[in-house]
């Protein structure tokens, strides 16, 4: 008989790959789900790492448990419980499978019979395999919650562990159990029980409290109590309008007082109040009669993202009914972070009579003079301003004037806020006017344009017209040039199909028509070759009808593929009448007279 090594457990090549993958960062833990036993085909087995299945599997089930050995932390124990009612086979080998039903480990076992109960003997049998790994955390340690049988060892160990633990039910408001004692008086936890000490503290505290039914009559020091409540002398004074009384009702000391909850809403002249306390950052500015540049403000803008805003109400002109003169202009000033040093200024226009441009001059450091350009007759405008805490704005009520932009100034950016008064032109928004205009580039109607160049497509992105050269317009279908138009006419490289007539000429026309009631299709064809230079032929679906042919010598032949019906036939001077009479020089006249 062949010699086999001793009984052993081997991790398969696949199992090694799973363990290595589980140890890598972000790897998935190995889950051992099933064990199988086999009879080895009736012979002892010699498993190796390349094994992917048992020699002869006889029974398989979910693992009963996967646990770590209590004395060796690097050993994993996997158990399979074979119930008493299962049997009728020998056990010589066993294997462990993962969640993908692939063999992770295999072992050879001493041969043991697992009989059926009806064979007169039966017992539950436990098959245990142990795996040595470097890190047990890479394997899911589980006990199958669906297992309905446990080994005696598992039950005994669980009972012993429970008896030694303090994991017993706690008492609740409805059930008995263990509870924790507490001697304090500040907790609201209902899972602990109060000690006599805690009860005494609570009773002593209650005895020192005021009785609700006494209505403060049990106070021992009334003045001290009033002081503790921060009640002043008025708490003991009566209501009245004389000295040593307090105001009430319609007393002017009450009705004329500001109410905190109104947040200033009960101030009669709010604007005057705001000016009195210096809360309104606004001033009046008047320009002279001329249009030009005016220095309206001096600002300090530190290079730490400071911001300032100036808003002007009113514009150039003062004519009643010219609503655009009631204009709004907004200036926004913004400093950077010092890289580079300076500010930017934008002007937002809402009306044609508003300011036109903005510019600034850096006079020193973070100080800048702000200029605007505005039209004439800009009298008595209102200017409001605001700024961040690290900046400052000083408005000039009578600004300096210059007919031209100061030479050392930097121009800002002007933005127009379009509205019903200032509507954008088609050019402003790069649109095509309804009155006509020029479109630069390709146009697609209902689709994108794939023809490119100076073209227009309809529905299909490569079907339409495209300019080729001076006086030449190409016709495209599915990106193929099917014809073109120039000053000599329409040129087509494909068939021309018409449901109506094709007419040529001006006053008197030549028409090519079809009544659409023929049983066959007719063709009028021009063709030729070396022997027949020019052939004009009429055909239908069954063949040719007739043709006129130019021969190489210049002569012409007219041929009919069938009968010719005519009142009179002429051939030179000869005549053939429809009554059979013939006229010709051979007869000296009519044959009937010969």
From TrEMBL:
Domain Phage tail fibre protein N-terminal residues, every copy: 6-152
GO biological process, one term: virion attachment to host cell
This protein's UniProt keywords: Host-virus interaction
Gene3D superfamilies: 6.20.70.20
Top-level division of the source organism's lineage: Bacteria
Keyword DNA-binding: no
Subcellular location: Virion
Pfam families: Phage_fiber_2, Phage_tail_fib
Keyword NAD: no
PANTHER family found in the cross-reference section: PROPHAGE SIDE TAIL FIBER PROTEIN HOMOLOG STFQ-RELATED
Protein name: Phage tail protein
Naturally occurring in which organism (per UniProt): Salmonella muenchen
